[in-house]
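Narrative summary of target 7.
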Amino acid sequence: MTEQRISNPPDKLKKRLYTVQEASIYLGRTAWAIREMIWAGKLPYIRDGRRILLDIIDMNEWINDNRKKYDY
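Modeled conformation, tokenized:
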């Protein structure tokens, strides 16, 4: 029997949870600004022990909810 190999490896899993530092890069804000948004209740978060993690879906919703259009 011959061994079959997969020519195309499956895509890597996309990351869903981000640390505060990674979220700051994603949103273009400082880490302290992200923390202030969490404390103000603007961004939901997940606490894993002492770690604070942010869901990319929640960050994208925040972006869409705060999108403004300029009116003349």
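Strands lie at 17-19, 46-48, 51-55.
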